[in-house]
Design a protein that fits this description.
heterodimer, B: alpha/beta, 5-stranded mixed beta sheet, 4 helices, 17% strand
Chain lengths: 459, 163
């Protein structure tokens, strides 16, 4: 059953890939690879947006899977006819032995990660707490009461029914196609996005640096305990981290290639982050601000391409928010403002941050410390400078994390409880951004291993 | 030259270490593998326990109530907590509540979805979760006449009947 679910999610990935290729028809292997992994988020995102609209318009839910199939076939046809496949072969050459070895090495690391995930999944087939309290219970309402579930959202039928629906609707969609609300569907969705996140980091680094840097970044991400653990939780944090990285990668890609389609896609993916979790709303605002700042730096109005990308998801999100109950974080703005000036809260947050950061990754030695050490040792190596504006990626990381600190300062919940139950996951949201920034900046393994010192003789 | 060798070693070591961490994690997890481990999961256990409730409820029921020991009027709040306007444990901030009892309510909602489960007795059908204390007299006082079906594990299906 898990394989069938994965297959369905892969079809959504392919639909996303077809759409992306029609927008951006680059045929180099690295471009095709990033389009494949961006396709995962695009396919899943657009599918869930359409599913919501479908139900909103009270069209029978049971017909939606057939509509999706029709759209997929249509996209595949247009992709095949208009894909502009002439000259594809010239972009491909036989890989070197080292490239082949590293590619297989990465696949092996991904396989081990998937196996670890599967073992953990067996201990908690329904996920943990928020999975059955928020995300999967919502999917049950959608699947088991088609066309009635929208009123259940307004009635606050499950905890936090104000949370956006990307995960919930994708799970329910696969249940509708399989005809069974198996626990393997949400697990498959988690695994699908875990591997897509890793693949996205790999392909983004391949584009910004080289293949070997991509492998290094991806293998590091695969090694993190949080990737598998949070995946096993069946929450929406993996998906959110994915959309954060996708947006930053696309905006960075614009600064390299100046193709306005990347801005449009960045806007779309930023809005899909807001459709995944409420933290995505903050990220969307940050994205707009950074796009505006970039506009000032390049002296061009980039928002005219960025904003249209986010429009469709934004409309759906507004429709959803119009029926959803209010969020519980902002019930008392005056209390929040008072807490902002309470210095003891800063102390508590920093102490918890230090503690969690030291143990982050599940390595025997602090993962972040090793990363810092690696950066310190490697960064002075002569290597080509990145061609895009790397500060943009760092800005995403810093601003999003600062927003999280602000939320902790102002939270109406008990601070210790809030930090304990969420800090690790929030750190994971922004970690792929940190890895993308660091490894775009640093020389790659290829730069290090193939470097020849001047005036040295090598026999 | 030494610096270059050190950097090369660091690169190779980092890639190898990342892979090794994944393999080590697999070896640790594999030791605890048990093909029947899912049966002990709290959600699976709760779903098995409440599965009969769904079968017993008549068709067309969209809402059911939920009562537990947290609703007993003489229920003491956890020691050390001031009342501060809290009437029952349902009203307490989440970090003060007994997570086990709260999760049982949440799991009931999850298991019975898409039937909406809400706290309270103002429903024709009510799920009762009373593990130890006698509750029948209090229940009669609260909702009047009722029929009771014991599901097991302290779970009851209560049907309000006309007087």
């Amino acid at each position: 059953m898990i394989l069938i679910a994965l297959l369905i999610y892969t079809l959504k990935l392919l639909a996303g890939f077809f759409l992306l290729h029609l927008l951006w028809d680059a045929k180099e292997p690295k471009a095709l690879t990033i389009k494949l992994f961006l396709g995962a988020g695009l396919g899943a995102g657009l599918s869930s947006l359409l599913y919501f609209l479908w139900s909103w318009l009270t069209i029978p839910d049971r017909i939606f899977p057939f509509f999706e199939l029709l759209v997929f076939v249509g996209l595949a046809f247009v992709f095949w006819r208009k894909g502009n496949w002439r000259g594809l072969r010239q972009h491909f050459s036989a890989p070197s032995k080292r490239t082949l070895f590293l590619g297989l090495f990465l696949l092996a690391a991904a396989l081990i990660c998937a196996v670890n995930f599967f073992i953990l999944f067996r201990t908690a087939p329904h996920g943990i707490y928020d999975a059955w309290n928020i995300w999967n219970i919502g999917a049950r309402f959608v699947y088991l009461s088609p066309n009635q579930w929208i009123s259940a959202v307004s009635q606050n039928a499950w905890d936090h029914s104000d949370y956006p629906l990307l995960v919930t609707l994708n799970v329910a969609d696969v249940w509708a196609m399989i005809g069974n609300n198996t626990t393997q569907a949400p697990a498959a969705f988690s695994l699908f996005f875990m591997l897509s996140l890793v693949g996205l980091l790999f392909s983004a680094l391949w584009l910004s640096r080289d293949f070997e840097q991509g492998v290094l970044g991806a293998v590091l991400l695969l090694s993190l305990a949080e990737l598998v653990n949070i995946g096993m939780f069946q929450y929406a944090d993996i998906q959110l981290a994915y959309f954060f990285l996708a947006t930053a990668a696309l905006l960075y890609l614009y600064t390299v290639q100046s193709n306005p389609r990347f801005l449009f896609l960045a806007g779309l993916f930023a809005a899909l982050a807001a459709w995944t979790k409420n933290e995505g709303n903050v990220f969307l605002v940050i994205s707009i601000v950074l796009c505006f700042i970039l506009s000032l730096r390049v002296k061009k109005n980039l928002l005219i391409f960025f904003v249209p990308g986010l429009l469709f998801p934004a409309v759906v999100i507004l429709l959803f928010k119009s029926i959803a109950p209010a969020n519980d974080l902002f019930v008392s703005p005056s209390q929040g403002l008072q807490q902002f000036f309470d210095l003891s809260r800063y102390q508590i947050i920093l102490a918890q941050l230090w503690q969690k950061a030291s143990a982050f990754g599940g390595w025997q030695v602090s993962f972040l410390l090793i990363l810092g050490l690696y950066g310190f040792v490697i960064w002075r190596m002569p290597a080509p400078k990145p061609s895009g504006r790397v500060w943009l990626i760092l800005a995403f990381f810093v601003l999003q994390f600062a927003a999280y600190i602000l939320i902790y300062l102002m939270t109406p919940h008990d601070l210790y409880w809030h930090l304990d139950t969420s800090l690790n996951r929030l750190m994971f949201h922004v970690l792929p951004l940190l890895l993308f920034w660091l490894f775009t900046l640093l020389p790659s393994p290829q730069d290090v291993l193939e470097y020849r010192e001047p005036h040295a003789t090598y026999d | 030259m030494f610096l270059l060798i050190m950097r090369r070693c660091f690169v190779i070591a980092l890639i190898a270490a990342s892979f090794a961490v994944g393999v080590y994690r697999f070896s640790t997890l594999a030791k605890f593998w048990n093909s029947r481990i899912a049966e002990k999961n709290e959600v699976v256990v709760w779903e098995n326990r409440l599965g009969r409730v769904k079968q017993e409820l008549p068709e067309g029921i969209t809402h059911v109530g939920y009562l537990s020991e947290w609703d007993f009027p003489d229920r003491q709040l956890p020691p050390g907590l001031e009342r501060n306007g809290y009437t029952t444990e349902w009203d307490l901030p989440v970090q003060y509540r007994d997570v086990g009892s709260l999760n049982e309510f949440r799991l009931t909602k999850y298991t019975l979805a898409p039937i909406i489960v809400e706290r309270g007795s103002n429903y024709d059908w009510i799920i009762g979760n009373f593990s130890a204390r006698p509750f029948k007299a209090w229940l009669q006082e609260t909702i009047g006449n009722y029929q009771l079906k014991e599901i097991g594990g302290g779970i009851y299906l209560i049907h309000r009947t006309k007087p």
